[in-house]
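Why this split exists: single-chain examples teach little about how molecules sit against one another. For that reason, every record in the complexes split bundles all components of an assembly together and asks for one structure covering all of them. Below is a record exactly as it appears in the raw files.
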Amino acid sequence: MAVDWSSRPCTWQRLCILVVFFCIVFQLVDSTQQKLVKIEKLDRTIDLSKSYVTEKVVIKLNTAKWDAFELLVPFQQYEESLAHIQVEDSSSRALQVKEQPERDVLYRKLVVLPNASTSVSDTIKVTLIYMNCLKPKPQFIPSDGDQFLYYENYVRFHSPYEVEEQKTTITFPQSQIQFVDRDSIPELSISGKKAYLGPYKKVKPKDSLSFGVRFLHNIPLVTGNQVTKTVKVSHWGWLQVHESYELENKAAKVKGGVFSRLDYQLMHYKQSAEKVVARLPLEARDVTYKDYVGNITSSHLRDADRSKSRLLQLEFRYPLIGGWKNAFFIGYRVPIRKYLDALGSSRYQLRVGIAPSISSSNVVLDHYVFRVALPQGAKNISWRYSSHFVFDEMHHETLLDILDTRGRPVLVFEKRKMVPNSMAFGSLVITYELGVWSWLEKMLLPVGFFMVLLTCISLASRFRFRETNGASNHSIYGNQLYSLHIALSDTYQEAIDTFSKMKGTLTPQQFQSSYSSVHHRLKEYELQLEHLHKSVVASLGNSKLATLANQLADIYKTKHDIFQRWYSTTRSKLGNVSSLDKELEKLLQSLETENIKLEKWLLDIQDELK
Amino acid sequence: MKKQLPTGITSTQQQLLFRFAILVIACFVSFSIRLFAVIRYESIIHEFDPWFNFRATKVLVERGTYEFWNWFDSASWYPLGRIVGGTVYPGIMYTAATVYHILHALTFPVDIKDVCVMMAPLFSCFTNIVTYFFTKQVSNPTAGLFAACFIAMVPGYLSRSVAGSYDNECVAITAMILCFFFIVKSVHTGSLFWSGLTCLAYLYMVASWGGYVFITNIYPIYVLVLILCGRYTHRLYVAYSTFYIVGTLLSMQIRFVGFQAVQSSEHMGALVVFLFLQCYCFVQWIRYLVPRDIFLTLSRIFWVTVGVAFILAAFIATFSGYLGPWTGRFYSLLDPTYASKHIPIIASVAEHQPTAWGSYFFDLHVLSMLVPAGIYFCFQNLNDGVIFVILYGSFAAYFAGVMVRLMLVLAPAACMLSGIAFSKLLVPAVALVRKWEKDVQYSRISEKMESKSKHAKWTSPPSSNKNSKALQILVYVLLGGAMLVLFAYARHCVWVASEAYSQPSVVLSARTSSGERVFFDDFREAYYWLRYNTKPDAKILSWWDYGYQISGFANRTVIVDNNTWNNSHIATVGRVLNSPERKAFQICKKLDVDYVLVIFGGALGYSSDDINKFLWPIRISHSVDPTVDESAYLTADGNYRVGEGAGPALVESLMYKLCYYRFGEVQFDRGHPAGYDKVRGEVIAKKNFKLRYFEEAFTSRNWLVRIYHVKDLPNIG
């Protein structure tokens, strides 16, 4: 036979067919040995009572071997509204979700990898949070009209696997519910605020029957188009937090964009947002609420409530009715002790909360930027999350703040689509190194600056002192004037002394001679003064010094006149007096007015000579 | 004579230290008294004009000098636009930008807004210092210190320089005093150095404020007065000639002034005096060369020729149109009633009104009474500098009487003159007191000496006779009185600063019956609404008062603003407001207007709203369009009322309709019926009406600002 087979010319062909046949048979046997992956039971609840949508799916897997579990999210939904996805196993442990890199046109594939420890994870809980998927319908309503929101989804949970049995529960805020084309949806029942879809048996993979529902809900759909939280770390004691918000109310717009204050005061515009609440840490201080044009006075800071935080009630400048926008900032600071730990040898660990302060149930964020500015000179920066929340993007920047010469390293994290109220975001743990010098620098910089400045001033003032002592005409004349004044006043003093010494026997000759010596000296000095005055005027022009010289000359001229007059009167009655004391008193009295002038003059000349 | 103090400081040094300390304290006071605005309200730019300056500063800081010079602002005066670079006094913006860049270079990343807010307090400190040196130059250091202390808080100056009033005046006053100081200094010394500094100060003044014309005119007048007093010197010649030539060239560098500096009539006085000074100098020179009798005939011939040539030149220049005409603002300086008769747009501004007597006392307090005393003391001790102060004081007093806002120019003069008066009154008194003290000491010493050695060498001068006792009482009363006066002055200034002049006028505040402060933030509410909820290229029509604020706060295009350069454009806006709805709509559509904004105080009781200003839009549009008849807006007996019997045109006008739209449906107070206007104190004439061409877009919380959308044209027909 074998020879026979081999002798035939077509034997090789047959052999090949045989091999192929066996291969197929083996393949078949192998696949029947392993059970097909299939979902046994699927329970879905959709919550539509808030401004974002929470979809919770409990999936019971069959006992087949699951290498990975795949989730399919329609591409448009994935891009526009899927804010968060969380998968847990039966013991509420988070499972890792990976995004499939290749892009399908219609779907985004997410792969859930089972934990190494839990080999058989028979139940998987999937929580999907969507935002921006409730659209007002109609888009324009009258000012006192009610708002209806429209929601679309698959009637049966969209999955690549076959489902044995599944059902869906939808929770609405109010009982006014209208399904679009209700008759086409199988097994739909509505009772009160809830609608039930299913149960459906033996659902094929990728079943794509969808439903649309319109329901009454008068809430503002406040969306943060751009929300930034900036945290500045200072090792000198404070953590500065600054948050900026750009909000838009995406609720139904009022026809014609008309806003009537009167109607508003009459409680129309049910979809308007007037205020939000920010939760600040208990020890927050210096809280500010501002916008681009200044303070906003309408806010209240309430004390701690049970949640161990302070509540900042922020009222907007104007109510946000449907379609209106607003922007504002809040800022505060907290002591850094609670947030910064020293790990020894100039290593530090910082924990900062990721979520923004405003986390109200009807505020969702389209774009969230979280910035952490570390102190200048921080090195070897590493960071990790404390929970399973992950930012989309991350990059570095530098920031120049007060007294920064090189700039602070800033870690910038970005996340598209975020629902602050939906989960605990945990905090970011950042570890970095900071040398002692880097954080002393801030203090040493101003100290050094002032030291240099003061040194320069003191040096400069010394130099200037020398110069003025050197060769300034001005001060020379001033000094000459001053010394002349001293000489003149000394002469008077001497004269009075000599006269007061003359007692008892007084001869007119004696009196006259002493007077004339004084008189001559005074004359001489006055001449000098005159000369000086002229030269001052000639060389300095009409300066203060010239007036001063003039004044001095005037004063002493008057003094001299008084002195002369006194002399002539006293000489005539010289015989009658025994002592000159009384006469001298008279002289001094009459000279007094001039002395007052002199005092003023002295102030002036000191001024000029400084 | 020099006393040595225990610490080793000579009395000169002690005096210097003392003066320095007083100046520092004065600066500190002047800075902090202006912060009331920030404490009571917040760090915000005030009023109207500062908002433009702030906006321009932001452009300068963000885009740089060249972009600033080339800045064509298409967001104002739509559709004309405004060439800002060439129609602005850029001094204050450059100053703020410089401070901003310096602070940034010193690693202080401040906000440009805060720099602008703090500009005025900062420059008031500089004014203090400059005033001290100026007064010291013309009188003595004591007077300087007094003047510095006075100007630190004089309400007349404070009103324009509180924190946040980021206006030209806040730097210009400093520049002006600095310029005056250099003028006096250069005339005293005749040095080119000081004259050069005068020119630089003048350049800064020209760059900062239109009031530089005051300097341009007062300096030549001063020169003439000095010549007439026979005080002509070469120093004067050098100082003025340098100033005129270099200063004029420098001032022409400012684009807004440009060739006006040699063409416009306001600047001609300086030129004429400059030429006259050359001739005078020439004649003086001739006098030295020729004998007296020939000189007389020569000089006669010379002066006649010059005079004839001058008159001819003036005629030719005026008729050939080389010389610009005299502007209205200048006429109204000479004739206080000119503006209200001829130019409604000037008359409509509150700060261009003549000053009431009360405001002299309010703005100057005791200084208003000390000024004459100061002038008296100036005449007692006459020198070149003092003559300048007297001239400055008297001119400023006259101008302050013409226009309320020129009180600002008077205030420094009043401070200086009062400083001089105070020093002349107090210094001799204090000197007397000191002397008595000395005498008492002296007599004690001599008593001791007497008791020691029965031979008295020296008898103390008698100080206890009746005459000097009376004098003593008088002196103490004088000193005590002066103290009281100064105390009252300081109290008044602080009160004025905290209550009257610190309002930003963007935020209104009032006290409730329980004494609590409440704020009405309606302006910002509405402007901020515009900023975020209208198209970025929306055009807003409002009366020109709010133009700068809208472009500053809301960043939207406005039709007219506070730079009132185009009268007919403003008249058109006035025409919109005083026309019936249909006609107003047609004009609005022609102007491409999207929103109309009106200020309405009737619900809150805010009296300076658009209804109260409404006669001005009527008058201004009458000056362009004579068909507008003011009497149609008044009641039959010629009163302006909004209630029963209001003028028919008024009730039909757009302004009335926009202000009172749906106002009649609300009862704001229990005591008053619906539609009761709190400002006018009456129930409005027409309550129920509908708007056909406009629709309400926004109304602020207290109905203060109402914004209406101009409806689109109907699609059919």
